[in-house]
Amino acid sequence: MDEALINGFRKLSQQYAYTSIQMHEAVARKAGLSGTDHKYLGFLLQKGQMTAGELANLTGLTTGAVTGLIDRFEKKGLVKRKFAENDRRKIIIEPDTATIMALLEPLYKEYRKKSEELTVSFSDEQIRVTETYFIKAIEIMQETTQKLNNK
């Protein structure tokens, strides 16, 4: 394969990642969150309720950092702490999905519309190839993360 083509693709992939960070940081600021808090909130939206320990494991944060994160979310009314039914020593973090979506959806509205317009401009085959790339790239990133975290 053409090395220049591979290097150009790698650089484009890096630029996509950097630009994504910049956009999500801007969204987070408009929502009154830090960039990382915004992304961690995404974990809660995606996975649903979980314990603080599970959130720490998922994010790689210490339990102390997760406590601070949850405190910040709770102050903004984005999550609630509740006792686990079978073990009152265990605290479950429950995202308030409606409140979170009310906060974030308006900030993503135009981006989503333009992204959907872009996606439908591709053929089914082009979408499948792109999807395959993302699936495999995500697997590589997860594997690398696990190795770096010694898990």
Automatic annotation (TrEMBL):
Pfam families: MarR_2. Residues 2-150 form the HTH marR-type domain. The keyword Cell membrane does not apply. InterPro entries: HTH_MarR-typ, WH-like_DNA-bd_sf, WH_DNA-bd_sf. SMART domains: HTH_MARR. PROSITE patterns: HTH_MARR_2. Keywords: DNA-binding, Transcription, Transcription regulation. The keyword Transmembrane does not apply. PANTHER family: TRANSCRIPTIONAL REGULATOR, MARR, TRANSCRIPTIONAL REPRESSOR OF EMRAB OPERON. This is MarR family winged helix-turn-helix transcriptional regulator. It comes from Adhaeribacter terreus.
